[in-house]
Amino acid sequence: MRNVFGDFSLFLRAEGMFGKIEELELPELKWKSEEYNGGGQMGTRDLALILDKLEMKFSSNSYERTLLGRGLQAPGLQEQWKVMGSLIVPGEDEKPFKALITGSLMEIKRGKLQPGKKVDTEYMIKDITYYQEIVDGVELYEIDLLNQVLRVNGVDQMATRRRNLGR
Questions:
Q1: Would 139 be classed as within a structural domain?
Q2: Is residue 136 included in any domain, yes or no?
């Protein structure tokens, strides 16, 4: 069965942006890799080295002071963001979705101002150092860049590396 988002909302700290967020793109999760072709190897491989930077985009249909006032803060200042959603699963109860994000609102792109029309504004959260995604109470991902944690389906992918580094 397919899981389809019935609805979602974005929270900045504890304040919900109900009905104000039209679209949201969760961070793309991917490895930065380097091509490798060692002696005796018949072809080239991509070796995963580190995670690529995490960014989240969303757009608002409201000229929202709460959001606008969070942009362009001092470098390194991060905010706690939360995405809550409800997944529709045909023939079953809806399932909860939650994503927790720690990052900085670093880009604000405003649309045209026109009398009597909504103002579309695009936002980009960068410098994401923490990301956690949970579906129906089960953690899919936990990425904590500062503590070198990468958990996928509950399995800590970086435990050996942390141990090797004395952490």
A1: no
A2: no
